[in-house]
Amino acid sequence: MKEMLDYYQLSDKMSEMRDWYDGYMIGESEIYNPWSVIKQVKSYLTDRNAPISHWGNTSGNEIIRTLVDMATYDTKQELELLLRGETLKKRIVEELIYDEVYSDLNNLWSFLFLTGYLTAGGIETVDGSRYANLRITNREIHYIYEDKIKSWFSERILDNGTRTNLYQALVNRDSSQVQKIINEILLQSISYMDYSENYYHGILIGLFSGTDYIVRSNRVCWDFIL
Fold first, then answer.
1. Distance between CA atoms of 15 and 1, rounded to whole angstroms?
2. Every domain of the chain and the residues it spans
3. Which of 48, 57, 59, 126 gets the highest tally of CB atoms within 10 A of its CB?
4. What secondary structure letter does DSSP report for 195?
5. Which residues touch 188 (CB under 8 Å, ≥6 apart)?
């Protein structure tokens, strides 16, 4: 990497390239993503563009989508920890076959590690099993998690069935059911970091905008302004 950047007079980009594209483990060796490295060096030479997630533009990332689909509330909390830069200690099953990946949510963590979506900060053997302190590999992969997970969780919690039940409860003036459904949506979608009133305001606007009623946000009082 250093030789490549020196050759193209891009030595000042070394730290940036490491943050974005380094961190993949092959045995005991840590390597860069060669595809993304080549694409980004070309980008520097042609447009001087800042780093982007080149992997995210080429991969379907279906393994992350599956993780989201299978996620429990605890899994969602673990994903939030990863997105904040923290680590998760998980058992790694290196002899996984493809058919076993989706049979157990715990297997998905191993597959994310083996396919480069997570990297190990350290591996230890306990009673014959290998455990790794997993973290998101680099900024390129962090972008994929952040971008895809947010959109897929939104799709999952705001499906037509949920909306239909909410609208029916509103029509029936069943306040208890409305409260229950909204609580379930918030439990699946927010974290303790989402404390702004505007966040909840936006969720409710999105939920109710699919009805036959006209939904308006905070209206400006022009008479007051004038």
1. 11
2. 2-55, 62-144, 158-208
3. 59
4. -
5. 73, 76, 153, 156, 157
